[in-house]
Each structure stands twice: as structure tokens, then as C-alpha cells.
């Protein structure tokens, strides 16, 4: 299959808009679970308001949050797909720019020194693009994540020593959740990266934070730790928007990678309650939006 880059550009444009306007079904189900479990009257009232905000945004075809985020595109290419890599990146950028201009989105992307905003949601090395490959024949999967700043500011890395053990990594996660309190718009998804190098560990934390709810770490030890931390975080009493209750987090997700014998890296990346993402799959049979 030869990838039609004009069609691919349209998909990238549409996914940005869909991600900003339609909350994924797993997050809606997560809200329902938290509403049933919340024991604080204030917490329940805040959760009810959040759910109503989602309903109003979708009913009026408005965006879920004013923060249009840093645009991230995760591309997974299957076997037998022909494409030019440079043209692929250019198509993603055009799609991102068109979404911003054609739908009058607020551009949240600026130069880090001059703070100049090009009003395109693009800039140096932005949109962020990750490309990976799998064995599915003639398939291209595209995921778009508009990562908001309020939650992205809840990012931390600690290069622990192996002698510190996994207990230190778990304490690091809990301490960071306590430190952040309501600043990251809880209920959140707490993404945790374990292992790798410093940059890979941070990347894994973001992969974990943007994973669908009820998904489980592929590594059994990682799955055990994310279950432990998910219980622990909701015992902290931070609650929705930091105003008290059991609904501090939808879940804690863990992703890990092998690391060096003298390293024990741990990273945290937070996803706020407006956990936006959109996906599409391109095959010879057409385009399917998740």
C-alpha cells in the first residue's frame, strides 16, 4: 500500500480537532466509576460539574478545554506500506497548521526564548512526532494527543541509585502527586516511567499517562506496581481539583524499559481530567476513526 499523503494530512488535521472536542469513551467511563466511589460531597459536586462540561462541549461542538496543548502525533506503520519519511513529517505539520487556522483554534506554541507565537500550533520541532513500526499488513495507525500545559508542568525525573530500590521509586511518585495537589486538574492519570535512560524514562512516563484506562502494563512487575500506586494515590485525600475526596486519579499507569546496572531512573508525567486523544487507522479499505 502506498500511503496517500494528501489523505494522511486530512487525517492529521481532523484528529487534532476530534481530540479537542470529543472525550474518549474510556475516560467517560472512568468518570462514572469515580462518581460511584466518591464519598465527599464536594468531590461529587466537582465531578458532576466536570461531566456536565464534557456533555455541553460535545453538544455544542466546542472544545473541552481552552488549552489546545502541545500537539503530539504517534504514528505506527505496518508491513508493506510505502511512504517518504520527509513528506510524511511535512504532511503532519500541514495538517496541524490547517486545524489551527481552519477551526480558529488558540495556538499554544511559542518560541522558548522570544515567546513569539506563529499562530499555527507549530514551531521548532513541534508538532512532536513519534514513528514506530509493527507487523500488521498495510496499516497506518495515527494517534493525536494535545498535551495541555497544566498537566505537562507536572513532570519530574529522578535518577535514583539501584541501592535505593523500587520503594524509593514508589515514594517519589507519591511525593510528586502530593506536591502537585490540585495544580494538575485532578482527577488525573499519573504516568510513571521506570528504567531506560533519562530521556527514555521521561518518554515512557508520557506514554503511560496517555494510555487508555483499564489497560495494564505488559510487564507483570510493572502491572503490580501500577495497581499498588493506583490504590495509594486515591488514599491521599487530594480529590477533584485538589478540594478533597477519593477521586485524585483515574489510575496510575506504569511503563518500563531495561536500564543500566548502575541506574534506577523514575519519571512522572501527569494527564489532567480532560485526557484528550484521538485515533485513526488507515488501510486499503479506507479510514476508520476510533
Automatic annotation (TrEMBL):
Pfam families reported for this sequence: Fumerase (PF05681)
Origin superkingdom: Bacteria
EC number: 4.2.1.2, 4.2.1.32
Residue ranges of every copy of the Fe-S hydro-lyase tartrate dehydratase alpha-type catalytic domain listed in the record: 10-280
GO molecular function, a single term: 4 iron, 4 sulfur cluster binding
Enzyme class label: lyase
Keywords attached to this entry: 4Fe-4S, Iron, Iron-sulfur, Lyase, Metal-binding
N-terminal signal peptide: none
Family under the similarity heading: Belongs to the class-I fumarase family.
PANTHER family hit by this protein: FUMARATE HYDRATASE-RELATED, L(+)-TARTRATE DEHYDRATASE SUBUNIT ALPHA-RELATED
Stated name of the protein: Fumarate hydratase subunit alpha/L(+)-tartrate dehydratase alpha subunit
Amino acid at each position: 500500500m502506498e500511503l496517500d499523503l494528501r489523505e494522511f494530512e486530512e487525517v492529521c488535521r481532523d484528529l487534532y480537532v476530534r481530540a479537542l472536542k470529543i472525550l474518549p469513551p474510556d475516560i467517560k467511563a472512568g468518570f462514572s466509576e469515580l462518581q460511584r466511589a466518591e464519598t465527599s460531597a464536594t468531590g461529587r459536586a466537582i465531578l458532576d460539574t466536570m461531566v456536565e462540561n464534557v456533555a455541553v462541549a460535545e453538544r455544542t461542538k466546542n472544545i473541552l478545554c481552552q488549552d489546545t496543548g502541545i500537539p503530539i502525533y504517534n504514528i505506527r506503520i505496518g508491513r508493506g506500506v510505502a511512504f517518504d519519511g520527509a513528506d510524511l513529517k511535512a504532511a503532519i505539520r500541514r495538517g496541524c497548521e490547517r486545524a489551527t487556522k481552519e477551526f480558529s483554534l488558540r495556538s499554544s506554541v511559542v518560541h522558548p526564548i522570544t515567546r513569539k507565537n506563529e499562530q499555527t500550533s507549530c514551531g521548532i520541532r513541534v508538532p512532536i512526532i513519534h514513528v514506530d513500526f509493527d507487523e500488521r499488513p498495510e496499516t497506518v495507525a495515527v494517534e493525536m494527543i494535545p498535551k495541555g500545559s497544566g498537566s505537562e508542568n507536572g513532570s519530574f525525573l529522578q535518577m535514583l541509585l539501584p541501592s535505593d530500590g523500587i520503594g524509593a521509586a514508589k515514594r517519589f511518585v507519591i511525593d510528586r502527586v502530593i506536591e502537585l495537589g490540585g495544580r494538575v486538574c485532578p482527577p488525573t492519570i499519573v504516568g510513571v516511567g521506570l528504567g531506560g535512560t533519562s530521556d527514555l524514562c521521561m518518554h515512557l512516563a508520557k506514554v503511560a499517562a496517555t494510555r487508555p484506562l483499564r489497560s495494564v502494563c505488559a510487564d507483570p512487575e510493572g502491572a503490580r506496581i501500577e495497581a499498588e500506586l493506583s490504590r495509594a494515590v486515591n488514599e491521599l485525600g487530594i480529590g477533584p481539583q485538589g478540594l478533597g475526596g477519593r477521586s485524585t486519579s483515574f489510575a496510575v499507569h506504569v511503563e518500563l524499559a531495561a536500564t543500566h546496572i548502575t541506574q534506577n531512573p523514575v519519571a512522572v508525567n501527569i494527564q489532567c481530567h480532560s485526557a484528550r486523544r484521538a485515533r485513526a487507522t488507515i488501510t486499503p479499505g479506507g479510514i476508520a476513526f476510533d
